[in-house]
Amino acid sequence: MKRTLIGIAVLIFLFSLPLQFQYLFQDDEVTALQSQETVVDEPLSILFVGDMMFDRYIRKVADVATGDFILSCIVNELMDADFVVGNLEGPITTNESVSVNSTVGGPNNYTFTFPPETALLLKRHNIHLVSLGNNHSFNFGISGMKETHSFLSSAGVAYVGGPVEDQAYLVEIKEIPFAFISYNQFAERGWKIEVDEAEKLIRQYTLTHIPIVFAHWGEEYLPATDNQKELARRFVDAGADVVVGAHPHIVQEYEIYKQVPIYYSLGNFVFDQYFNEEVTKGMMVKMLFSKDGFVSAEVTHTELTKDGRVCPRVL
Q1: Which residue, 16, 165, 176, 315, shows the most beta carbons closer than 10 Å to its own?
Q2: CATH level 2 (architecture), domain 44-312
Q3: Residue 2 scores a pLDDT above 50
Q4: From its phi and psi, is residue 149 left (phi > 0), alpha (psi between -120 and 50) or beta?
């Protein structure tokens, strides 16, 4: 208020001068006052994407056409965000794939390992944070998880989920502090936090960070369950600003609960499922945040193409 009164006084003084003297002050004083009036905090953008799987057919495509081809028609959307988060549906290891050319429905068909260059592929495409809190991260055991951590860290990609000590990832994006909290419905005890522990983590960071929950939950290929809805609302009641989910491999419904957006499942982002239309459809959600929290969300619909790519889908 004091600055505003001084500004008004300066303007009155300037306009009371004869015209031949006003120009002496205009460039510096008036421009400075105008710039003070137009300073506005720009919201930052976080883009959320769904399940990413780089084995089986996707690995074969990348071996021939490179991994960049898989993300080639969605790269602009990825690069346009300040921060990108997605679910990495398996470990990054030096092990040979057992799922390539495996029998559909057989045990090896669902045992994933992604090639080491996957970490750099994520980095090149502006993916800053991946969730490892899912039912495939331990497909190659603890050693596979350790390799995953090593490859991601070397590439400069952060991770959350997996071992209990990795259930929260804290980061400042454009000087705004965020806490990304992982909840994995499918991990065995000792490798996950329970619901009440997740609520405790959310409450812990509410006063200092913007808490965002990334959950792996629900039933594959089905709408959001009552259990998902109950959990999401508990997370919001604990103080979460946003809740985003993965695992069902289809886009599930979303809702606003107590002014907080809940996206139960974003569906597949990079995957080789084509057996019906629902599994080929996904969505990316670009959310804007200010220092006070969530501002707005914009959805981009995606589709899996049979050449291995993920592309924007025209409705």
Answers
A1: 176
A2: 4-Layer Sandwich (3.60)
A3: no
A4: alpha
Domain ranges in the chain are 2-37, 44-312
pTM greater than 0.70: yes
User: What pLDDT is stored for residue 162 in this prediction?
Assistant: 82
> Helices then strands (H, E): number in the chain?
11, 14
For 95-150, what is each residue's pLDDT tens digit? 999 999 999 999 999 999 999 999 999 999 999 999 999 999 999 999 999 999 99
Q: State the Cα–Cα distance between residues 77 and 81, nearest whole angstrom.
A: 7
DSSP β-ladder status, 168-173 and 158-160: unpaired
| Ordered strands of the 210-216 beta sheet | 168-173, 176-184, 210-216, 242-246, 260-263, 254-257
- What tens digit of pLDDT does each residue of 25-52 get? 444 433 333 334 444 478 999 999 999 9
Q: What is the pLDDT of residues 245-268, one digit of tens each?
A: 999 999 999 999 999 999 999 999
User: Is 163:132 a contact under the CB 8 Å cutoff?
Assistant: no
